[in-house]
Amino acid sequence: MKGKVVLVTGAAGGLGKHVTQAFLDAGATVIGVSRKIQQTDFASANFTAMPAQLSSGDSATKSVDQVIAKFGRIDVLAHTIGGFAGGRPVADTDDATFRQMFDINLNATFYILRAVIPLMRKAGNGRIIAIGSRQAVEPGANVGAYSASKAAMVSLVRTVALENQDAGITANTILPGTIDTPTNRKVMPNADFTKWVQPAKVASLIVWLASDAGKDVNGAAIPVFGGAL
Questions:
Q1: Are 220 and 92 in contact (CB under 8 A)?
Q2: Residue 23 burial by Cβ neighbours in a 10 Å radius (0-12, 13-18, 19+)
Q3: Is 191 exposed, middle or buried (CB count within 10 Å of its CB: 0-12, 13-18, 19+)?
Q4: What percentage of residues in the chain have a pLDDT greater than 90?
Q5: Which residues, in sequence order, are CB contacts of 69 under 8 Å at separation 6+?
Q6: Residue 123: which of 162, 164, 157, 159 has the closest Cα?
């Protein structure tokens, strides 16, 4: 990945930290976007912190414009932003929760894709990898808003793959089961952590998809379920 410019969204998150570090270890120049991120979060001269919230089309465009102004291009977009809400059946889910899940999981994805794709098409290449969820394809009870928003996100990325294969762009989603992060351990202290997905493994898959070795994988939704099949 040496010489590649990588934009990681959600770079300060439980998974995003591992993704950012994996790309840095692979030699990439990495711009990490997150609401609360600092230059000192990663000890690498190839890292640039960009505090931002991709909650609107304008904010996404502004962030991408800043990257282009400094680095000239974006070779890889690793989109790790996501949110979770659950605990209620669909009939008891309030409007605010439903909107929130689509704002975080679908709309933010749409905004950053819309900002990045024209630049990648102009360059004639690009790699897009987004983090979906196992529940996008295997929805469970009491997580309807979350599952629906992730399913829509997977569909959106697949559409991007179809629309841009002529321009040398690939777009894939990864569908992890429960990821072993400090936050998940805190909210589910009695779970069997040994069956959870290790974030470093997901990060390594993302880097592979972004590399030349992964160029023939396009439009895929890749399951990564750990020990919980």
A1: no
A2: buried
A3: middle
A4: 87
A5: none
A6: 164
CA-to-CA dists, residue 20 to 159, 170, 180, 186, angstroms? 26, 20, 17, 23
27-84 pLDDT, tens digit each: 999 999 999 999 999 999 999 999 998 989 999 999 999 999 999 999 999 999 999 9
Parallel, antiparallel, or unpaired for β 47-51 and 76-79?
unpaired
Domains and CATH numbers, the chain: 5-224 (3.40.50.720)
| CA 95-101-102 angle, 5° bins | 90
Q: Which residues, including other chains, have CB under 8 Å from residue 107's CB and lie 6 or more apart?
A: 55
Per-residue pLDDT reduced to its tens digit, 81-101: 999 998 899 999 999 999 999
Question: Using an 8 Å Cβ cutoff, are 61 and 119 in contact?
Answer: no
Residue reference for tokens 């465009």: 61
Question: In this structure, how many other beta carbons lie within 10 angstroms of the beta carbon of residue 64?
Answer: 24
Percent of the chain that is helix, strand, coil (3-state, to 5)? 50, 20, 35
Whether the pTM exceeds 0.70: the reply is yes
Report d(CA 99, CA 83) in Å as an integer.
12
Tokens 């819309």 found at: 114
